[in-house]
Amino acid sequence: MSAQTANSTMAAPSTLAKNDAVLRHGLKELLVLRPLRTKMMTSASILTLTELLSSYLAYGRPGYGPVVTSRVPKMAFYGGFISAPLSHFFLTTLQKMFQGRTGRGAKLLQALLMYSLVLPIQNAVYLASMAVISGANTVEQVRTVVRTKLLPMMKVTWAVSPVVTAVAENVVPPLYRPLFMSLFSLCIGTFFNTMAKKQRVAAARKAEELEKSPKDE
């Protein structure tokens, strides 16, 4: 092996370490100095990408519907100005309530508040917002969506959230946990949004077939 090759091999890990250090510093500065703004931008970006990906997966073939719709800016607004501030408020409130308390009882109480109060409120706000974005015009329509879909959504949340949280706390470095959770939100949001769009496409197609059948007869 030549001296030049050896130097290149040694330089590569050094460059990667330097880039990682720069990334860590940038993330730390954003999350510590501007936590709310960072969360707003991240949430808006994730929900925008989720909407685009799910539309492509559900409609991304000729005749199945557009990929870019009016829902894209609405989802971005929800992510940046509703979801992120609400999440930030609950997180900072819980951190202040349990600051300096590291015992098992405190952790249990914090988890209880998270799963019995915080997550249900966040999911209810999400469902209400999605109902409005999807065209709900009355309070009763929004209530119906929340009433019928909140419990099924909570069952999924209660089943998945503890597992994801455990993986994040035991595997992912603390600085990268927000990125990990954001990536998970992108994946799970894209999956459920795609399924919902495909269901709407199937329902619309079935209704169209029912309308045509009497005419054919």
Automatic annotation (TrEMBL):
<feature type="transmembrane region" description="Helical">
    <location>
        <begin position="40"/>
        <end position="59"/>
    </location>
</feature>
<protein>
    <submittedName>
        <fullName>Putative integral membrane protein</fullName>
    </submittedName>
</protein>
<dbReference type="InterPro" id="IPR007248">
    <property type="entry name" value="Mpv17_PMP22"/>
</dbReference>
<feature type="transmembrane region" description="Helical">
    <location>
        <begin position="75"/>
        <end position="91"/>
    </location>
</feature>
<keyword id="KW-1133">Transmembrane helix</keyword>
<feature type="transmembrane region" description="Helical">
    <location>
        <begin position="112"/>
        <end position="133"/>
    </location>
</feature>
<comment type="similarity">
    <text>Belongs to the peroxisomal membrane protein PXMP2/4 family.</text>
</comment>
<dbReference type="Pfam" id="PF04117">
    <property type="entry name" value="Mpv17_PMP22"/>
</dbReference>
<dbReference type="GO" id="GO:0005778">
    <property type="term" value="C:peroxisomal membrane"/>
</dbReference>
<keyword id="KW-0472">Membrane</keyword>
<keyword id="KW-0812">Transmembrane</keyword>
<feature type="transmembrane region" description="Helical">
    <location>
        <begin position="179"/>
        <end position="196"/>
    </location>
</feature>
